[in-house]
User: What shape does this take?
Amino acid sequence: MSSSKTGVVEPGGLLAILGGGQLGRMTAMAARTMGYRVRVMDPEAACPASFVVDHVVVGNWDDVDAARRLAAGADAVTLEIEQIGVDALREVAALAPLRPVEPIRIIQDKILQKSWLAENGFPVGAFRVVRCESELLEAISALGGRVFLKTARGGYDGRGQARIGFDGEARDAAVLEGWASIGSRPAVAEKALDLDFEISVMAARSPNGEVRSYPAARNHHEQQILAWSVLPAGIPAELESRAQEIARGIIAGLDLEGLLCVEMFVTRDGELLVNELAPRPHNSYHQSERACATSQFEQLVRTSCNLPLGETEILTPAAIVNLLGDVWLNAAGGRPDFAAALAVSGVRLHLYEKHAARVGRKMGHLSATGATAEEALARVLEAKARL
Assistant: This one.
């Protein structure tokens, strides 16, 4: 249900989402609140979004036929995962409004992504592209002996990554093990940095070029998986301004319509460096549902349906902590004490309806608000401890 004059997809229209994981689920819930019908494509029929959408098209990320069925009759299409095959994206774009394919092609390949950032003048740490063991050996020498090796395609939440040179092991043995651990595939070797902390900035861009960005979130990772995130980040105004400028510059430079989360490193000597890009909702902005005038999920619906972008200011500080499968596996009887967690003031529970708990698998999150970012974070961490 769209207006041919304005290109706006009005409530009652059909929004299709490539991906039915937790991000697709929460985007679908926001779309439902606004009156849209929702269809998703996912490899699993019982994916997290399946419980809140009208229809699930079952298909792998490179399944062109499934992508065609997803887009047929849709008023707009968006995505919750960037690993969709380019041919599938092009098929979708031929059938329904899908925001540009080219930025996704660049972002989903870390070699292209890192090279694009460097070539366009955005600050990144020293890196080398490696396609074989000998190139990895050369990269380690050039980058000071300690590197993070990240596969070009498909890696996230610590998957497809290896640390080399940190534990005093023999270099050649470490290279062989690291290269094998990522499947001996093309990768980016990044110099290990002396980090102070990590932040991210979510930017949104509409089809008419309007850009809005959210205040920076401060993030903490454990085992290379986001553990908690808080808004606001509580960083100096000058650093906040630089981070905002970088995120806005990247989303405009890519000509990307939709959401773009820019993960950044802050080093101990004050450098602000881009780590990675995600053209979708992001774990570090789940608390935008509690903190901001417009959640990241509603903002994605707005950009997808060509609606005016929502305000992004923080109304109240908020924080989230991820609930991994470990919580269930370590709980007595496999049943976390959610009642105890919810007894903490300001805390809410968000579960994704995933059926099997596994180590490192994101099963849900807790969120909390507070008078300050510190109070919100303390509350949500206390709630998790009670599980």
Remarks:
- The first strand starts at residue 14 and ends at 18.
